[in-house]
Amino acid sequence: ELYKMADDGLSSEDRYNLWRSPLSSRYASWEMRNNFSDRKKFSTWRRLWYFLAKAEKELGLNITDEQLEEMQQNIDNIDFELAAKEERKRRHDVMAHVHTFAACCPKASPIIHLGATSCYVGDNTDLIVLRDGMDILIPKLARCIDRLAFFSDQYKKQPTLGFTHFQPAQLTTVGKRSCIWIGDLLMDLRNLQRAREDLRFRGAKGTTGTQASFLALFNGNHEKVEELDKKVTDMAGFVSSFIITGQTYSRKVDNDIISTLCSLGASVHKICTDIRLLASQKEIEEPFESDQIGSSAMPYKRNPMRSERCCSLSRYLMSLGSNTQHTHSVQWLERTLDDSANRRLTLAEGFLTADSILITLQNICEGLVVYPKVIERHISQELPFMASENIIMEMVKKGADRQECHEELRVLSHEAGAQVKEFGKENDLTLRIKKSIYFEPIWNVIDTLLDPVSFIGRAPEQVEKFLEVEVKPVLDKYKDYLDIEAK
Q1: Gap between the Cα atoms of 259 and 194, Å rounded
Q2: pLDDT class for 2, splitting at 50, 70, 90?
Q3: CB 227, CB 52: distance < 8 Å
Q4: Distances (CA, A) of 176 to 44, 155, 163, 166, 465
Q5: 280, 295, 319, 340: which one is catalytic?
Q6: What pLDDT score does 5 carry?
Q7: How far lies 342's CA from each of 347, 365, 421, in Å?
Q8: What is the pTM of this model?
Q9: Where on the phi/psi map is residue 401: left (φ > 0), alpha (ψ -120 to 50), or beta?
């Protein structure tokens, strides 16, 4: 059920009459959409109210087991229609849900939200959702790395033209190039892991972060206030909480999280742009289904639509970074509420977009197709020019003058280049060298000199070492999550 489409509660008619985000209706997984759902949000609010009341009782406040039991039994019993009615009436989302929770917990009603501010449930829930979102993304990123590692090992010895400035350059291998992609994704994985580990709970801090309300509840007992903070933090599954906050946790935390996703978006955009460029040369193709249609007008087309989707979504993801930067920068003093509406959009869409990108990238990497014969033909068109220095060195070994050899080769290269550029013919430099009496001393070794394998340097060995030293230890941590396929 990992990637199933969720029932969003709309009638079939409303699904087509009302706008829905494509992130939810087309791209993101069920698990990520569920993570940012209203049910997850508001049931977490109730769970946090339960944690608070439970901790307060343990520390001596007059709260009964019966009240706690009532709260616990109704965590998921949410009357969304009543909550919407209450919010229209009170113009306050948290108090609307306090009253909605109280409606099904009449015994616990007097102690719900005791000592807390709205950010106790709002901010702490956001931190839980961000943490859980990271836990969804990180294994998916590991799977993308795993698929590319397999691809890299498979094609570590396959020579291919390298490109600098998008002009043919020294040869590399198909597997070496994809290791460059992996290197970027490994950095992203480290960034996501670090951001995930850095997350702390806001805890029980009160209206401006001073814990004054809780200090009053416990009659000035500082130790009990600190223990309350620790208890709710532990119950929420966090190792630690912020010692210092305003009314909210610092919005720099949001910026840190979204920035790591933006960086991931940049990596995926680069990878999928490379794939699109290579697809245009017919050297590599992303998966193409048997019944897939590439163009409504041109039946022969096999467009790299998955890679194009990744690039499109990645650009959107990268743009979200400015939102979190601006939001953090304008949080006056202890807080302002102009963060709220923006964060409702940015945080959810950042994670849903990253999720969509990783699902698609994994699918691409599981079905990449390489066409060695096309690659060989492209190499044959450029390699004779690239081999000029090797040819000169070999001639010098046979007693030739380096400058004379350079001039002979220059003339033949320009003649062959004219055949390619002016007449659209194949590069015939090798044939011209074999017909030139001047180059007779190396006729018997010219084919060896032009063997593409001799131009790839240590690429295969670099791939092997990289996969063993840098990739394998990382993937070993996620071995239990690597078998899931992206459909």
Answers
A1: 12
A2: very low
A3: no
A4: 46, 8, 13, 17, 11
A5: 295
A6: 37
A7: 8, 34, 55
A8: 0.89
A9: beta
Print the SS3 string covering 243-310: CCCCCCCCCHHHHHHHHHHHHHHHHHHHHHHHHHHHHHCCCEECCCCCCCCCCCCCCCCCCCHHHHHH
Active-site residue, from 12, 165, 290, 296:
165
Q: Known catalytic residue: 241? A: no
Report which secondary-structure segment, H or E, holds 483: none
Q: Which of 433, 274, 447, 448 is nearest to 365 (CA)?
A: 274
By three-state DSSP, how is residue 364 classified? helix
At residue 3, the pLDDT reads 37
Q: Do 248 and 202 meet the contact criterion of CB atoms below 8 Å apart? A: yes
What digits encode the pLDDT tens for the residues 164-187?
A: 999 888 899 999 999 999 999 999
Per-residue pLDDT at 291:
54
Tokens, residue 443: 């006729």
Sign of CA pseudo-dihedral 405, 408, 412, 417:
positive
* Residues comprising the chain, all counted: 487
Tell me the pLDDT tens digit for each residue of 188-231.
Answer: 999 999 999 999 999 999 889 999 999 999 999 999 999 999 99
For residue 477, give the 3-state DSSP assignment: coil
Sign of the alpha-carbon torsion through 320, 323, 328, 331: negative
Calculate Rg over the CA atoms of the chain.
Answer: 31
12 labelled catalytic: no
Task: Compute the CA torsion angle 433, 435, 436, 442 (nearest 10 deg).
Answer: 60
Strands 167-173 and 159-164: antiparallel
Return the axis-axis angle of helices 305-319 and 340-366, rounded to nearest 10°.
Answer: 150
Residue for token digits 């003058």?
Answer: 401
d(CA 258, CA 328): 12
CA distance 358 to 104: 41
Closest CA to 21 of 39, 38, 33, 9: 33
pLDDT confidence of residue 373: 96
